[in-house]
Predict the 3D structure of the following.
Amino acid sequence: MILPIVAYGDPVLKQKAKEITKDYPNLKDLIANMHETMYKAFGLGIAAPQIGLAIRMFIVDTSPFAEDEALGDEERAFLETFKHVFINPTILEESGDEWAFNEGCLSIPDVREDVFRKPKIKIEFYDVDFKKHTMELDGLAARVVQHEYDHIEGVLFTDKLSALKKRLIKSKLANISKGKVSIDYRMRFPNQKKKR
């Protein structure tokens, strides 16, 4: 089932999400719905707060990056198959010199900006069967995971921008929260007047 994606301005996007247990209701159905929602919106990842749930879970599928001809064969092959569910994750370390990459977000359509992040991470998480894993990632896979991880911490990529960049996109963000944006996937807007 395709779920509406929560738009910028909704308080759930600014909450620190809570951990879940393996008996979380309908977990596998929820994950399937998140995948369907992400693919319909042509996303590389989606976090539970983006569908209105303040829980520590996100999914990623970096296969669209594998089409980038500038990548080496090894990185392309890795990105092609990097598809994971992260439950109750913790980033244990981030390392390397920060690098910029142009990011966007399904909750903030039509806004893209360069964001600086460390290139390498080590993350601990549970999979869908609640088996614990530790994984080291770098490059684009690390960046997608960091972006989604920020969502469960109540952080948006726009929070990482300079004061000047934030001022320049302020009216765009206000319009998104009011539903004044053209998108081709379902969204839930916080400031829309309720129909009686």
Notes: Residues 163-177 form the longest helix (15 residues).
